[in-house]
## 1
Amino acid sequence: MPSVRDQVLLAGLTTLGVGGPARRFVRAGTEAELIAAVRDADQRAEPLLILGGGSNLVIADTGFPGTVVQVATRGIQQAAGPQADAVRLTVAAGEDWDGVVASCVAAGLSGLECLSGIPGLTGATPIQNVGAYGQEVAEVITTVRVYDRVTGEVTELAGPDCGFGYRTSMFKRDSSGRRVVLAVTFRLRPSELSGPVRYAELARSLGVPEGGQAPLATVREAVLALRRGKGMVLDPADPDSRSAGSFFTNPVLDDAQFAALQKLVGADVPIPRFPAGPGQVKVPAAWLIGQAGFGKGYPGPGGARISTKHTLALVNPGGASAADIAGLARTIHHQVRDQLGVDLACEPILVGLSL
Ligand SMILES: Cc1cc2nc3c(=O)[nH]c(=O)nc-3n(C[C@H](O)[C@H](O)[C@H](O)COP(=O)(O)OP(=O)(O)OC[C@H]3O[C@@H](n4cnc5c(N)ncnc54)[C@H](O)[C@@H]3O)c2cc1C
């Protein structure tokens, strides 16, 4: 039987530590309970929020005026892939993501190692196509099993049909939350070596050329060390990790937008950028935020602040409210837009809040 409670405070269930109560709260420990809880909320025509590890959510201080279903399903199955050099790992939505990555590294399965240290649950990884240090889950997801709230059916979506893009997918684009992820299947390669290391900072710290390889466990440790240096590994002793990760995505600019930005900052100022497809470049949001006058540790209202380690993370070192975090985010967003003409997009999901 799922556990059902009223007025459960959500702040303690999010990594930012903000958010008021859920009117109704259901913890679903099995796939059947998860589907039943979602069906029940839909039959009552109640607003529904699926909660994983709460690491990509900013929930309003007024809480959630409906049912919050916390995913607590478990189970990992391994099968041989269609090709001899691959295995398929099917992981229940409620499995802790970093636990899955750690067990793959220990078992000599390559494909997820650069995604070490990302908080949250496996079922959320397809939502924003979780990525870091040159890897993203879209590269290794073969299928996503979902409960479709419109048809009432459970279906398997092939990876290429999930509309994956940079920190997005069709799941994230669909604000109605039509599909509830039940399980994700990954195609991994049995190997003691990582895939090609594409991220320059990681390659440097491993002492390999870009595109080179390194032992899986070494890559995991290097990624964790880099992440810790930025407050990007959850650590109760590190107030800078009390965040929702990066608060803004890196904007993709077309040639005209980039030329306009260059004009605004001055022709002699080099703008860091990465290729993002024909006629497009990705500009680091952290650089834009710095350029607009915000530094590490910049104070916002109520104790909310920019991380002292990473300009892209907004943190609640303790005592800040959702309104304080949103207020700081709004100030940054507006100033970047007004000074640099770039409209930064929020990476976390805002619930009952807007910028
Ligand atoms: C310190 C820190 C570092 C981070 N670093 C990274 C990083 O490097 N790369 C990166 O991509 N992200 C990063 N994140 C963001 C976050 O960890 C990921 O987006 C993660 O996948 C969110 O998982 P979650 O279980 O916590 O999801 P939640 O925050 O609980 O939910 C996020 C969204 O997904 C929906 N959702 C969750 N589970 C399901 C499901 N089963 N079915 C349907 N919808 C669902 C929720 O309704 C919500 O809309 C970081 C966050 C923190 C706090």
Note: The mean pLDDT is 96.
## 2
Amino acid sequence: MTSSRAQRGISNYDGRGRDASPSARLSMTLVVFLLAACTSTKPRPIAIVGATLVDGSGSPGVPNTTVIVRGDRIESVGGAVPADAQVIDAKGLTLAPGFIDMHNHSGAGFKTDPAAETQVAQGITTLVLGQDGESELPIGEYLKSLDKSPVAVNVATFVGQATLREHVMGEKNLDRPATDDEVRAMAVLADQAMRDGAFGLSTGLEYEEGKKSSTEEVIALARAVAPYGGIYMSHVRDEGQKTFQSFEEALRIGREGGVPVEISHIKMGSVSVWGRAPEAVRLIEGARAAGQDVTADCYPYDAWHATIRVMVPSGRYDDPHDVGEAIAENGGAQNVTVVKCDAHPDYEFKTLQQIADEKHTTPVDMYMSIVRDGGANVVVRSMTEKDVKVFYQQPWVMVGSDGGITARHPRGAGTYPRVLGRYVRELHWLTLEEAVRKMTSAPAARLRLRDRGLVRAGMKADLVLFDAERVIDKSTFQDPKRLPEGISQVFVNGVTVWPVSGARPGVAIRRP
Ligand SMILES: [Zn+2]
């Protein structure tokens, strides 16, 4: 997508003509340089005029508000337009804080797309990486590399428990609980990660790298991040039949580790737990009523995306009985779509049922042969919208995409517009103000970011302008990277990143 998406005559703050000749560009650069030199103490302000302000707090939108941005900060809300301001006419649009994605996998994608097009096109301005137990390490070096070569969005990170295991125990040696010595060594690394700026510890106990971890081993690492105010971010051990035991385990890790808990991408992910979201809510509200700090994030889809191995909780990927049960538990082979398969690219975007039919075999045999050939990534439609709705209506559930630049699931390009268009405008599950709060001040408060997540004077100028009547996701299971519609302009630290401008104003955010 190009800047042709710019709507309503909104201009690029960055001001660089895409089609300017090299000499024109050079003279423009000189002018910009001279202007910057003369006005370096007071950059030219931007006045966003006429939008309905939904400020992220959850309070009702205020029509026809003027917001002044100067440099990377919001200078005023509701004040007069300075004479030298660049004016953006935002009549008919909604202005909100930039969206903070609590669960994002864009890390690797920055290498090919530092503009993070599918992310900024949704209004995302801050990504939280290091999820599901996998992170960069050392965290300090990673954040410094982002300081040196920034991307379009702000980046924060957790430290991954599986990454710590790989580092200490060796990649080929993860099929057992860690020894006491290994746990101590991991705790030292976790402590260093927190001092480097990580926001807490993430796990992906459903994945092979984390599966054999004992609860006690995770508690020990939670204790290591606790003194820094770290959060325990949990992709729980089982998102199918054993969902409830897995939630209990996450709560126990929080209690005994002395850390707040966030359940990642909360879901009722298989047939035997369908319709039980209200029970999950009762379980978590019980913990909250007893004084435990627990939240969750949730993506707006009835399908998950992970490795094909995750489907079989027993880990016996070559046992026809366990594999058959796993396929049934996910509602059948027609619900399982292979989206990435290095050994058989021709399987991609076909269901397990289709592939089995083509090969004249059964889905169970097909599953086992895919795993034998190196595995695959799958999108599995094994959730119900009824459960998603229950979660979205809880004030302690925020939005997280679980997507990212390279995602082969529509959530990677559609999450935020889908919540605003489908859940708010079409289905009336929640108000626009509440949805925006779940995308902005709720995650900011969770991360204790004091200068993002609200449109207030003095806050960082991460902002989204969108058309609440039009905003909608366009990405599909067959075409997962299709960009959404209705997001007009996105600023990160006062600089336009959508429509894609080439600017990279994002910062590495360290735990405050
Ligand atoms: Zn996950």
Note: The radius of gyration is 23 Å.
## 3
Amino acid sequence: MIQALLSTSSCYRSMHVAFRGTNTRSLLKTYTTKALSSGDQLHGYLVQQVQKVEELELTAILLEHQQTGAQHLHIDRNDANNVFAVGFHTPVKNSTGVAHVLEHTTLCGSHRYPVRDPFFKMLNRSLATYMNALTGSDYTVYPFATTNAVDYKNLEGVYMDAVFHPLLSELDYKQEGWRLEHDDLTDLSSPINFKGVVYNEMKGRISDPGYLFYKQSQQSMYPGTTYENASGGDPTFITDLTYQDLLDFHKTHYHPSNAKFYTYGNFSLEDHLATIRTKLNGFGKSEIPFVNKIPDRWAKPRKVVSNCALDPMVPVDRQTRLSYSFLTNDIHDSFETFSMRVLSTLLLEGHSSPMYEALIDSHLGTSFSSNTGYNRNTRISNLTIGLQGVKTQDVDQVETRIKQVLEKARMDGFDSRRIEATLHQMELGSKHKTSKFGLTIMHWITSGWFNGADPIDLLHINKYIARLRQELQKGPYFESLIDKYLLRNTHVLTYIMHPDASFNTVTANEEKDRLARKIQQEEKQQQQQLMEQAQQLEKKQNIIDDVSCLPTLRIDDIPLKQPKIVVEHTGLCNTPIQWRTTSTNGITYFRAICTLPPLMDDLKQYVPLFCDALHSLGTKSQSMAELDDEIRLYTGGLGFSATTSTNHSDINAMEEGIMFYGNCLDRNIEKMYDLTRRLIRETNFDNIPKLRSLIRRNASYLNNSIVNSGHMYAKTYASATLTPSSASNELLSGITQIKFMNQLAAKSDDDLLDVIEHLKQIATLAIHQTSLRVAVTCGEEAINDNMKYLSGLITGLPENADIKFSKEIEHTTQFDPTFKKTFIGIPSQVDFSAKSLRGVPYTHIDSAKLQILCSLLTSRYLHREIREKNGAYGGGAIYGALTGLLTFYSYRDPKSNTTVETYNKAMDWVRRYTFTDQDLTEAKLSLFQQVDAPVNVSMEGMPQFISGLSDNMRQIRREQLLSVTQNDIKDVAEQYLNQAYGITILGDEKKSGKDLPSDWKIHIP
Ligand SMILES: [Zn+2]
């Protein structure tokens, strides 16, 4: 994947995308002019199917390009956020990562656009709301989304030329794939190392034991098929990939006959077809190599045992992961696939699910393993049940318990209320109006479509719900599925992964040996070539391209006026209410914030646990399992979370609070508010067994998040001593919170009494009417019900904080920033770093200038130095308009000390660089992609509610952003970049933590 930080989770991972439906409102009418039916011919295409899907308010049209056989699915829908995607079927025969390296190299320049990295260049010349490239387990897809018709044409042209006519130069292949390179490009005697973007990306990925477990268990499940390989590449084998392999793979796979096109939105289908057709001229039909996807069914179950790195934050005896994977149905059968999804939910989701009770509540494990659930990203799907945080001696017991649960479910079936709750969730899911619906559909259907399922069939919800109800009436339906796929199945894999203290050393030694072998293969003379080639690559990386061949939007494509979101403010029972009345498709969205008094840190660090406790412990009269069923039956979910926001006009002031939120169909408004009130008022904090499993689950989740979000943790830690709200963020969600949660996880039952006391103190200090404010988003017709039942929630809360706990309240408000350099040891082969400086509040005139400065630093300087040259997966600078902090960061970084030097040279770079008008325009376009990105209906008015940003403030800021000049950039750089800063590196202390200057502090958890 290319756009490193925007959606890292979607790279290679099976895409478990929540199916949440429907449209962003738009006044444009549907543009497809002709009513089409199957058999019609249009611009060289044959219409194969036309179907309306009422519940999603769309018409789906499936076509085939007659000359090449390219497939095209168009989703005609009244939504302005149009999507284009072109994808190829790319099953692989080994783990060299050929499909993945090709995905990267394809975007490094094409015949019509022979500039370096047109994809990244286009990020700055467009108002795209999404641009990406993804390698899945057997396909590669290149999608974008935009609301602007000119932009759509521009990007479509660049994408089509990239995939069908890429340059695929050898130097780009080496930059993106792998290469041998001297550490010092001027010194032949300096050490040689492996470098390359994909090489380091995958080293970073497999540092995550959750990913490793998921990937390796999947590979073991499908021997003899394409899925036994790592499609993203395994670092051990990536270095076997050759340039010729890459060229061959492109030739055989990136052909229209092997392509699927996807278009979505309110732009005209006829236009799409006419454009695409011209780009496919010259191609005929081509034969695509066969790759097996269907494994031979095993005669008996199999078991695989492997190792992963030891996590120093977690007790050694609680780090085993294990899972049971059952090979299930062919995904061509859409109804069976739908039924298996429902079955998986019934078995695994929520406190009342039998697997949750048997495995998590019983403390056999801390949480489900990363591969748990129904996986339909392979031609033959699988259902997996697994645990992490298991004691080594409990492995056999887990297997017995899973079997017992399955036997019982086959005998007794499932409670009809739980089945109804699951179907209710699906109904509600299809009514949500999200701004990224076109992309959601694309992710939903892609894998099935490439595996031969009918893509339109995959969109039907109501049809399958109705059929499921019929089946349930006929007899024990889920019971028969359990019997067929889970109990009488012999293709079952037990996958066990134990932690191993020597894992990282073994991995590093393997790389060292492989490196020595590769170097030996190079003769002395070739080493000279190696140096020349590295110098050539560096020269190429340093060239400032003439990008004028690329299409671009102009500055006047950015609308001058901020769209206004009309909200109304009223009071109800002395509580301020913000109303956003709009078309919501029959759903009410509710948010409330209780402002916290200034608590002592000792107590404040419990706030996140308090929030989770509210929807995890149950009440005195109802178990969490019973409550969870009610929540699923009547709402789209209820939640509680800690919030911190910096004041828009003073970065030394902030608000801390607890937010409650939920949504429901309008017919369930009363139930939603009543459930919320019961959770807040009646939660039973004395439920020690539930509290223990909550703490363990949280600790496990947080520990696992470090290797994926290390840059976020580095950033939070680096800024923690700069402003009060970042100090609060570190305490509530940073490394400090993770350490705290691990301490709690190690406590005995007796010690938990003290934890319970703290949670009760927060309940009495934090939740009361006087500090409450509420926001409701709903349709006109639901206002009365909301007023009526909301008042029940408000008056059900205590009026004031309990004064007996007032000693827990902090009275100082003075904040003095300090500046620290910290190295934090984590079990990862790659580093994460962040350097943070104080800026200004949202309303300050320099805020917009700092934001443009960061955009330019990223695209003109840091991207080249950190990603292209230093080989990190991502890096840049961001300015937090709302936090008032300027932060440099790197992600999956093989050499963080070099990156730190790059950060420190930023000021010199600004002084040397001459900013052109085009630079400024591009920085503004890329910023307005975010400023003007379509938002979900549920989020409209939230900047106002959470941070107090009025339409007027946002309009002023818009004008400030648009009017930033070259001189402004130089001025703010001089003024702010030279200040004192906080800096943090997360990485392997044996590698990156040694030889740090003496003013660095080293923490090893
Ligand atoms: Zn990638």
Note: Residues 1, 11, 100, 104, 198, 201 surround zinc ion (CB under 6 Å).
## 4
Amino acid sequence: MAEVSSFLPVDDFSDLIAANQTFADDFSLGGFDGVAHAGVAIVTCMDSRINPLAMLGLQYGDAKIFRNPGGRVTTAALEALVLGVHLLGVNRILIVPHTRCAMTANTEAELRDRVGQSMGVDASWQQFNVIPDQLAALDEDVQTVRSHPLIPDSVAVGGFVYDVDTGLIDQKL
Ligand SMILES: [Zn+2]
């Protein structure tokens, strides 16, 4: 890691730190609680085309958001959802993968090859959890949440696909 870091300019983050200063200048949300005020939890992809709050008309403080490549319900996502339901006011869970997701467009071998070429070393050991069939994966994820022993039936669980070209979500499950 140290070798890689030595190539980076010392002010790598200076623009972001300056922007944060501006953000904090009129910050009025100190002491705000960590409850999901709209009772919503969202599991979605890390894709930069997705703004989870805006796409659902939600505001700061309204939702718990868990993101990973592909928007899959992983072990860590379940950890977040169980905590959200029992401690943070969540009563609706949306699982929202999206159109044109890189995790559906590449095979595991292709991703390993691309990363390996980018890094210039072997990356065949790295797991990426690609998604060969997005709707089948969504169905599996929705069922996993609905049948989780620590998520009660009173919690609504929906499976959606977000269209990155129209901004619309389409409920599939
Ligand atoms: Zn994606």
Note: The chain has a mean pLDDT of 95.
